[in-house]
Amino acid sequence: MSNGTFGIGRETRIVRSGARRVFTPHSPVDDISHFFGREEEASRFVSVINTEGQHVLVFGDRGVGKTSLAITTCRVLLQRVMGGGKYIEKRCDSSDTFESIVLNVLRALEIEHQNREMTQTTNRGGKASIKIPVAGAELDSHRQNAVKVLHQVSLSSPSWVAEQLQSKPGIFLIDEVDAVAGKEDRKKLAELVKLLSDNKSPLKVVLVGIASTGSDLTAGHPSVQRCLKEVQLKRMDDDDIKKIIRNGFKKLGQVPTEEVVTRITDISAGLPHFTHLICLKCAEASVVSGNKHIGSEVLTAALIESVKDSENALKDSYTNCLHSFNKPLEYKVIVLGAAQCKGSEFRAYDIRQQLQDRVGLDVEAAIISRRLTAIAAKAGGIIEKCGRGYYRFVDPRMPSFVKLLHGADKQSAA
Ligand SMILES: Nc1ncnc2c1ncn2[C@@H]1O[C@H](COP(=O)(O)OP(=O)(O)OP(=O)(O)O)[C@@H](O)[C@H]1O
Ligand SMILES: [Mg+2]
Q1: 300-316 pLDDT, tens per residue?
Q2: What's the CATH number of domain 238-308, 1.10.8.60, 1.10.260.40, 3.10.580.10, 3.40.640.10?
Q3: Gap from CA of 58 to ligand 2 centroid (Å)
């Protein structure tokens, strides 16, 4: 460390500025004041939750803002519409099963979830009975009959779980359902939703996950469609991305130029993660320099920092793919042209157009076509064929990452 302070002075200034609370590339938004756009999806979400017997399924591509929409809307709903009720959140991973998921909600609602011997008492003169655990039970033996019964837990049974949950008001958010490996487990989740719906439960379930169709997340359970309403999230509009940029910088008292706003919007391509990432790097640079004006020089330096902070999976698949060719530079140009195309699918012709317009390069469509075929043929390639003459990026975030790299490259070359 050159100055022996481990960068602590710089860090302290950044933390005090609040920039990392305003721009949060690595965590979902959970506060309405940082949440932009999505009016249509949020109001559908609200109306579904407020309809008896209906539950919500939020799905879409990686990083479009699914968790942010679900968390922010649930919070608002519980505070302003449902008048309370518990909010329980479970983020799944590949080791989760139906049992491990429902265990979360049972624990949070303080529902007995272990087999236990209970003492059931009956008043001699009447029929009323209560259950109390054996340990610590104090019975008036003159007036009550006591019978030992077993509180039988059946965590793997959707109907047992539904019975325990159905009278409890609140929202149970199950995020990253796509990570749950077992098809049977996902089917059981769908079954649980169906049972809660049939019983008009005030406990609402929100399922969230990466998928191109809603039924991917419920393993195609047929009868759940009536009660599990889908909210599909697509990329954000450019206007809403601009709101994230402008409002964020405004909160920090920083002023970006119009060119900076336009370039961040272009790189983001509707994915708010990249907006937050680049804006955060710009904001940090501005805090450290003390210059509230954010121009193109600050932006290009921020792009270099953003590349460093990007997900390794993106960096690795990009580098591995290009380095598997003898002349990686020739392929890099094609990938850049593809990243500049509007829309998720592109042809060799579209890439040619982009390279001409944006980079001033004229490459024959036949050459582009050959290289696209070669990239798509590679195992672990970053582009795949999706129709006759049509291609797309395997990871929908890749075009933004490629543009980020290109912006950072320009700075390094200067
Ligand atoms: N409506 C919004 N307004 C402002 N920022 C948003 C909005 N939606 C998402 N973001 C930001 O975008 C990034 C990704 O959001 P989020 O984690 O909600 O996406 P996701 O679709 O759940 O991602 P994943 O597929 O990885 O689970 C986060 O940095 C979050 O802060
Ligand atoms: Mg998420």
Answers
A1: 999 999 999 999 999 99
A2: 1.10.8.60
A3: 10
